[in-house]
Design goal:
Shape: elongated
Distance between the termini: 98 Å
CATH architecture of the largest domain: 2-Layer Sandwich
Number of helices: 12
Structural class: alpha+beta
Mean pLDDT: 77
CATH class of the largest domain: Alpha Beta
Number of domains: 4
Strand content: 25-35%
CATH superfamily of the largest domain: Major capsid protein gp5
Radius of gyration: 44 Å
């Protein structure tokens, strides 16, 4: 087999340059001849002229590698020259590279240049191999020691001398094949392709290998059968010839002679030996075929895959359990029995270091999926727990200019004074905790974790939703809820009667300018009002409004183009004054006039309480809501029971 696309490596020494003592060492420069045009002891020559074209593709991205590893770039070639001696290169090695200290301390002192021979000339008489065209593939820093007596040797790239001679013979002219070397123009070479580990290509190679093995096995069986048939025909011919000789011998002797009996015994012995030999050959071929068939079947049914596995959430619950278990026990994930087993199952390539962030984000997302009020408001991320935001709610109107005012002081229009103001958005902390006893074993904690986790998520979600809707905005209830911005309601309904669709339209009317765009208005109703609306024939539930069901959490229908959400956080139905905070029934809110802020996501902390022999697990987040402007009204209208 001939190999023309083989990649060769030339090893040579380099020298390094360090910055001066008063400069910061953020890189190091190395330089030297990557290749010389001298003839080595094996008769190989790389002239300087071949590097002019051989460098074109490499110079498009002149990265320097470590140990020929394409996943480990350490620097770039910044200068090169081609002279009578060969190819000289200068490279800058980054201080961030892992091999930086090894180069600095003279542990690594050699270049290794990888190239592919495209054209060459081999003289079989002088045994001189001259490379006429090549392509530079990569330049690496390696640990090969410098040998001043050997500039390079192509023969080192082959497993044995015969493969090297075969390679050079491909470049020999046809007239020089007298030494048994095949002409490079007529030889049918098999090119070994450098595989870039393409998964689909590897699978195709496996299928091709299986098909080739099956073809070879079938051919071997057919050859064996043909050989068996030929042997059988030969045996029959020999038997017929022997029988003829026997008949002739019998005809010449008298019945009393024993020569014929001896001859018959010899013939029978030879025939039996031939049959035994044939059976052994066939049995050996059958055994070999069975072995190959097993190998082929194994290749075809192999479950190995070289494709990048798709991201799956099948084992997310296990990762979440491992993270929470490590939090409670105060250990790292791989220090718990469950976490260590999970890492071994998923493989070391899975970045367990990111599991904690993944779990925190997913649990925060689950909290937000349970919220009814928060999703309808604009939300921003806060860098601190207090953020001051400048707003310019009313810009005024421009001035119309008459023809008589052109060219006068009135031509630019009337000056306007900006009514800038500031709003302050606070992100308040909400937290919940769980206690677990010291004596709880890891196996017991695995059973308790889903219960603890679900309870903490639900508590946080309920607290945030209630604060956004009904928060007092003071003391232990620091978030000011939407309903509290309408201190006195003009729309009331008797607590002994039922809320109607007309009450809802009155809420929108009470919004004033904020209620003009129905798409910007959202109704949030109590469960009592929701059931009252179901009895109103004009209320459009989602089965009547169209295929938009479940767009928002708690969404139950529509009034005009406005969504209707139901929340269980409203107080129990009871009468009261128009300013009471205990008789809320429903609200209409212009979501554009309110802004929600989140400083950070859901966070978990643990601590050992030695005095009580317990572990405490705390989940917390920071969030808040504020009103943007009051120029066009409060942006919220409340229905109260009377």
């Amino acid at each position: 087999m001939t190999i023309k696309d083989k990649i060769f490596h030339l090893d040579s020494a380099f020298t390094k340059e360090l910055p001066t003592a008063d400069e910061t060492i953020d890189s190091i420069y190395i330089s030297g001849y990557a290749s010389c045009n001298s003839t080595d002891r094996a008769g190989d020559v790389v002239p300087s002229s071949v590097w002019e074209t051989g460098l074109k593709n490499y110079l498009k991205n002149p990265i320097v590698l470590a140990y020929h590893d394409h996943d480990d770039p350490i620097g770039r070639v910044i200068d090169h020259k081609i002279d009578n001696k060969g190819l000289w290169v200068k490279a800058r090695i980054s201080a961030a590279a892992e091999v930086f200290s090894l180069i600095k301390d003279n542990v690594l002192t050699a270049f290794s240049v990888g190239f592919r021979v495209l054209d060459a000339e081999y003289n079989a008489v002088t045994e001189l191999f001259v490379i006429k065209e090549l392509e530079l593939v990569e330049i690496s820093v390696v640990s090969v020691p410098c040998n001043q007596d050997t500039l390079f040797s192509l023969s080192k790239s082959f497993d044995n001398q015969e493969d090297y001679k075969t390679f050079k013979s491909q470049f020999a002219p046809k007239s020089e094949s007298a030494k048994g070397l095949e002409s490079s123009t007529e030889a049918k070479s098999t090119t070994l392709k450098e595989i870039g580990m393409d998964p689909k290509e590897l699978e195709l190679m496996l299928a091709a290998a299986a098909e080739k093995a099956a073809t070879n096995a079938t051919k071997a069986l057919l050859d064996a059968q043909a050989a068996q048939a030929a042997a059988k025909e030969k045996a029959l011919a020999e038997e017929a010839a022997m029988q003829k000789r026997i008949d002739e011998a019998v005809a010449k002797v008298t019945p009393s002679t024993t020569g014929a009996e001896k001859l018959l015994a010899e013939i029978e012995k030879r025939v039996a030996d031939n049959e035994t030999s044939t059976k052994n050959i066939v049995a050996g071929l059958e055994t070999a075929l069975k072995e190959k068939a097993t190998e082929i079947e194994a290749l075809r049914t192999s479950k190995m895959t070289f494709t990048e596995g798709k991201k799956s959430d099948d084992n997310y619950s296990e990762r979440e359990t491992a993270v929470l278990l490590s939090k409670i026990t105060g250990k790292s994930i791989d220090s718990t029995k469950f976490g260590r087993g999970l890492i071994e199952k998923t493989g070391a390539h899975m970045a367990s270091a990111t599991w904690e962030l993944e779990v925190s984000l997913n649990m925060e997302a689950e909290v937000r999926r349970r919220l009814v009020v928060a999703p309808i408001l604009r939300s921003i991320n806060m860098q601190t727990n207090v953020m001051t935001i400048p707003v310019n709610p009313e810009a005024g109107t421009a001035t119309w200019i008459t023809n008589a005012q052109f060219g006068t002081t009135n031509s630019p229009g009337a000056a306007q004074t900006h009514q800038l103001k500031e709003i302050t958005l606070n992100a308040y902390k909400v937290a919940t905790m769980e206690y677990l006893a010291y004596e709880e074993e890891e196996d017991t904690l695995l059973v308790l974790m889903p219960i603890v986790r679900d309870a903490m998520v639900r508590r946080v979600a309920l607290a945030v939703d209630k604060a956004y809707l009904l928060g007092a905005g003071a003391g232990a209830d620091p978030v000011k809820g939407l309903a509290t911005y309408d201190a006195t309601s003009a729309i009331v309904a008797t607590n002994t009667g039922a809320a109607t669709l007309a009450n809802m339209r009155s809420l929108r009317k009470d919004l004033g300018a904020w209620g003009l765009d129905q798409n910007e208005v959202t109704y949030i109703v109590s469960t009592d009002v929701y059931y009252d609306l179901l009895d109103d024939t004009n209320f459009l539930t989602w089965d009547k409004a169209g295929p938009r069901a479940s767009i928002l959490t708690g969404s139950v229908g529509t009034i005009g183009s406005s969504n209707v959400l139901v929340s269980s956080q409203f107080p129990t139905k009871a009468g009261g004054s128009t300013s009471a905070t205990t008789n809320y029934a429903a609200i209409a809110v212009a979501s554009a006039n309110f802004l929600a802020g989140n400083q950070r996501g859901l966070r978990f902390d643990t601590q050992d309480l030695v005095e009580t022999q317990r572990k405490v697990l705390v989940a917390s987040l920071r969030t808040g809501v504020t009103q943007v402007t009051t120029n066009l009204g409060q942006g919220v209208s409340v229905l109260r029971w009377s």
